[in-house]
Every structure is written in C-alpha cells, then in structure tokens.
TrEMBL record:
The lineage of its organism: Eukaryota, Viridiplantae, Streptophyta, Embryophyta, Tracheophyta. GO terms for cellular component: chloroplast nucleoid. This is Endonuclease III homolog. Its cofactor is [4Fe-4S] cluster. SUPFAM superfamilies: DNA-glycosylase. SMART domains: ENDO3c, FES. It comes from the Eukaryota. Residues 47-74 are annotated as: Disordered. It catalyses: 2'-deoxyribonucleotide-(2'-deoxyribose 5'-phosphate)-2'-deoxyribonucleotide-DNA = a 3'-end 2'-deoxyribonucleotide-(2,3-dehydro-2,3-deoxyribose 5'-phosphate)-DNA + a 5'-end 5'-phospho-2'-deoxyribonucleoside-DNA + H(+). CDD domains: ENDO3c (cd00056). HAMAP family: Endonuclease_III_Nth. It comes from Urochloa decumbens. InterPro entries: DNA_glycosylase (IPR011257), Endonuclease3_FeS-loop_motif (IPR003651), Endouclease-III_FeS-bd_BS (IPR004035), HhH-GPD_domain (IPR003265), HhH_base_excis_C (IPR023170), HhH_motif (IPR000445), NTH1 (IPR030841). Keywords: 4Fe-4S, DNA damage, DNA repair, Glycosidase, Hydrolase, Iron, Iron-sulfur, Lyase, Metal-binding, Transit peptide. Its EC number is 3.2.2.-, 4.2.99.18.
Amino acid sequence: MPLALLLSRIRLPPAAMASTRSASSARLVRASRAEANPVVREVKRESSVSFDISKPESPSVKRKRVKRELEENGEHPVKQVVPDIEDFRYDKTKALISSSKATPPLVKVEKKARVSAVIKENWEAVLRGIKNMRLSGQAPVDTKGCEKAGSLLPPKERRFAVLISTMMSSQTKDEVTHAAVERLSENGLLDPDAIVRTDEAMLANLIKPVGFYQRKAQFIKEASKICLERFGGDIPDSLNELLALRGVGPKMAHLVMSIAWKNTQGICVDTHVHRISNRLGWVFREGTKQKTTTPEQTRISLEKWLPKDEWEPINPLLVGFGQTICTPLRPKCDMCGINNLCPSAFKESSSPNPKQKKTRSP
DNA sequence: GTCCGGGTCT
DNA sequence: AGACCCGGAC
C-alpha cells in the first residue's frame, strides 16, 4: 500500500517542529490506549449504519454495482463531483523497471563470518543500489511534485488532511485514496467540525471507493470528534495520542508524525518494509537470528541500527522497490541491482511455494 | 471464478 | 483468528 505518492501531495512547508522524543513506547501506548484516552470509549459506536451492501451478491455483480453507485453519486444531498479516479489509475507498465540496464554499479561483497558485520558494512550500498533502481523506473511513489493540493491549505488544515487521508489509505491504492480526499475536500469535509456534523452513512458513501469504507467512516468521525474536543480542531501531535485514535495503528501513527508534523518518531513499517527488511537479513526477532514475524518486531529491530536520518526516507524507498522488483510473489531478482548483496536473492522459487499446501486442510 | 494481500480492531 | 473491502493475480 503505497502512501508516499498520496502524502507527497499534501506535503507541508518547511516550517516544522524539530523536537524529538523517545521513539520507543508504541507498544506500551497501545496497551494503555483506552486509559490514555477516555474519549475513545465514549465515542464508541454512537450510530449504527445499515447498508444495502449487506445483501449477498456475487463479487462481480457487487463490483459493478459499486462502480455504478460511484458514477451516480451526484444525487446525494451533499453535492459532489466524483473525482476522476480513472485519471489516477495506477499504470503498472510504467511502474515496472523497464530494462536490465537498471543494474547500478555493484559493490563487492566479501564474505564475513558475522552477519551483523556484513549488514553494517553493506546497508549503505544496499540503499544506494535501491535508489539507483528507483531512478531507472517509475514506481508510483516517484511521481512527486504534486504539492498543489496540499500546499494550498493552511498548516492546520493540511495536517488534518494528512490524518484523514492516512486513515483512509490503508489497503487502498493511493490514487483511490487521493480521489476520496478530493471528494471530501470538494464537499468541505476536510474539516473536523464538518465531519462531525455529517451523517456517518453519508460519509461512508463519499469515501466508498476506499477499502473498508464503513469502518473507516466510523473511525474518521471518531477521530474528528477527538480532534475537536481535545486538540482544538488540530490533530494530535504525539505518537501516543495518535495511536489512541481508533483506526490508527503503529504504521499510520509513525507516518503521520513524519508527514504531518515532520517529527519522525519511528520507522513506518508497512508490508513492503517488513518483507524486504527480512529478505535483506536486516532484522531479527529479539535475541535470535530468526526473521521477524510482525511489522512491529521489524520496526524495533530496524530502529536499533538504522541511522535516524534514514527512518523517514526508508519507507517510500522500499515501498517503490517492493512494488516493482522485490515483490511479495516472485521477486524479480534477475532485474535487481543488489542481488549480490541480498542473502535471499534467487532463493524464493519463482513458482508457487510451500504456500500451496495451505489450501484447505483443517 | 477464486483467492489473496494489507493495517487495524475485536 | 476472523472481519472488514477491493482490485488484481492466478
């Protein structure tokens, strides 16, 4: 789930705060989030929305229906213009590295006895190699310079937009998320007060193209209420308080801290960062040499040695890399410029894996 | 047509 | 571990 493109559209001006805090306590925070933020409980489902989508229907029928509904959406009380999602469609051919010529200058690897030593000596070369690969092709995240939409907004509104778009963005292509943000914007709903006054079902309908839209509509309403009641309409400026928002987990919280507040508290570990870090042998479960099993383990492990300057850029870098070359299934190791630095290179079979077993045998 | 990925909550 | 959703891979 590439966020960088989306977020690059909402980038803030260089005015930012520089205070740094301890980056460690996300877990504790999550554990105690209920106490930390009593409002969260109160806000709990105050409206239950029932949707016509509950009817059983075939996936394809449903797909068509949703599409149609999107197109017809103009009939709603809130005047809206469906953003041209088609115009934002992710062009996969563009995203793929076009030629083997993408291979960057390779760095010699000398076998070292100790894995950690190898990592320490090579991480810079690895990052450099990945950057080079990213230059030759255009991953979705590479399309920058779309600061227009975001830069028109005052800082506070921009931060709110970042929060809302982040909350909508998980499991959703950033083009779609962006369209949804635009739709909210066009309806004057990039504003906590307006959102709170908007019917949840209507909100859900507006953001329908994004995944899990009902749940997100609920969470966005809750978050807006909390922003209003506790933060003067601004978004929380600490990791803890962001994590206290329902629908905001570690990944999104770190992202929002980086993008909205320019105050990176930790690494934003999504599925790409998680997968690639493990393939590179960059991260281990506490006290073992085993791969990490959760993004949070990856984050902790990565933060232990990766210089803080790299914390923010590592996400868009690996996301783009993961979209184009180091894909979850059948990574394109032959096109990868750092395959000589990667302990996992060519080790994952290009045809279906042990995973196949996983079909159904309870 | 079926299945799977992906972040978060429960 | 399953639910939430959709698009894309198979």
